Amino acid sequence: MRKLLSEFRTFAFSGSLLDVAIGLAIGAAFANVVQSLVDNVILRLVAAIFGKPTFDVAIPVGHSSILVGAFLTDLLSFLLLALVVLLLVKAVKKATGKEAAGAQGNRECDFCKSFIPVDASVCMYCTRDVAPLVA
Predict the structure, then answer these.
(1) Three-state SS sequence of 61-101
(2) What is the pLDDT of residue 128?
(3) Residues of the chain with confidence (pLDDT) below 50
């Protein structure tokens, strides 16, 4: 039981878990900004061109209806959101000259058994040279 508690403490307070938590928080905020751009700017341009920012198509089925237009609006919103994210990633790559994110994940050092990034060439704990798994 102590070993499990010790492993949990090591896991819960490791830097990588904190990095994930920060990444999720920033990712959620970024998603809100991009969704706002799509909803409040791009779909408004669609409305200016076609007259409506949404598709009003419904197929009646019994006492209900299938909202095909709402699905098409959500699909268009998703595609526009993906396009905006793609363009932002390309802009970051062009501005910095490198990918927006490097290799992801950790692996165990062959010597000290500490967890290090997969693209590390030197262990940050025991300072021994290790062969990177990702070039």
Answers:
(1) ECCEEECHHHHHHHHHHHHHHHHHHHHHHHHHHHHHCCCCC
(2) 92
(3) none
Place of tokens 């994210």: 85
What is the model's pLDDT at position 31?
Answer: 82
Q: 97 and 107: one domain?
A: no
* pLDDT number for residue 89: 78
Residues 86 and 100: beta-carbon distance below 8 Å:
no
- For every residue of 30-65, DSSP letters joined together read HHHHHHHHIIIIIHHHHHHHHS-SS----EEETTEE
Q: Is the dihedral of CA 17, 19, 22, 26 positive or negative?
A: negative
Both 87 and 120 in one domain: the answer is: no
Q: Which amino acid is at 85?
A: V
Q: Indicate if 92 and 125 belong to the same structural domain.
A: no
Domain of residue 93 covers 2-101
How many independent structural domains does the chain possess? 2
Helix (H/G/I), strand (E/B), else coil: 129: strand
pTM of the model: 0.46
C-beta atoms surrounding 69 within 10 Å: 15
